[in-house]
Write a structure and sequence with these properties.
Helix content: 25-40%
Strand content: 15-25%
Distance between the termini: 34 Å
Order of helices and strands: HHEHEHHEHEEEEEEEH
Oligomer: single chain
Strand order of the largest sheet: 3-10-4-5-8-9
Number of helices: 7
Shape: globular
Structural class: alpha+beta
Radius of gyration: 17 Å
Length: about 210
């Protein structure tokens, strides 16, 4: 478990979220979804950057072979889209589940699993696109602990994110407020053979 945790921190460091041009925010656009899916891809769990559109999924479930056509049968998942996917039966199929609380989510990641804080934006200024956010939960280290309250209770896990501010290590409660519906989602570590099976299934689902 300690080895897996170190590997996840190496993944975050390799992606170099605070300096990489891939994640630099541009006016009106941030890349939290890309960073989260990149980190998951390198760490092992399946978290889709692209996914089938609803009508394509219905066809697939009827046994119809569907080709990937961007914008028609498949699309990129925004942070809001990732929240919806993580709440769906498809996330379940890939080993994801919603954690009961912050302490459990941090414990799963400390033990070598993978986790995210995912928030869907449900309210905003009229006429503006609703943009959610997602951060990656990282293992605690002496240099970066989770945020705890006065009684020692865990109130925010250790995290990394791309966004308006790209951060490789932080622990904040960024999801508070009535504009967000937030969830903690974890994918506990499984043995390498299971990860390979999951990766093969991912490729089949994405490519048809």
């Amino acid at each position: 478990a300690l080895g897996r945790g170190r590997e996840l921190l190496r993944v975050v460091d390799y992606l170099d979220v605070e300096r990489s041009a891939r994640y630099l925010p541009t006016p009106g656009t941030t890349w939290c979804n890309v960073f989260a899916t990149d980190a998951a891809y390198l760490a092992g769990p399946f978290l889709p950057h692209g996914w089938w559109k609803p009508e394509a999924l219905k066809a697939i479930e009827r046994g119809v072979a569907v080709k990937v056509v961007y914008g028609k049968t498949a699309t990129e998942l925004s942070a809001n889209g990732l929240y919806d996917w993580l709440c769906s039966k498809y996330a379940d199929m890939y080993g994801w589940r919603e954690a009961t609380d912050w302490a459990e989510a941090q414990a799963v990641v400390n033990a070598g699993g993978f986790g995210v804080v995912s928030a869907k934006k449900v309210k905003g200024p009229p006429g503006r696109r609703l943009v959610g956010h997602i951060s990656v939960i990282i293992p605690e280290t002496p240099a970066q602990r989770a945020l705890r309250g006065a009684q020692g209770e865990l109130i925010a896990p250790a995290q990394a994110q791309a966004g308006a501010q790209n951060k490789a290590r932080f622990a904040e409660r960024w999801w508070t407020g009535t504009n967000y519906v937030a969830g903690l989602f974890v994918c506990p570590w499984t043995d390498p053979a299971e990860l390979l099976k999951r990766a093969a299934k991912s490729a089949t689902d994405l490519l048809g």
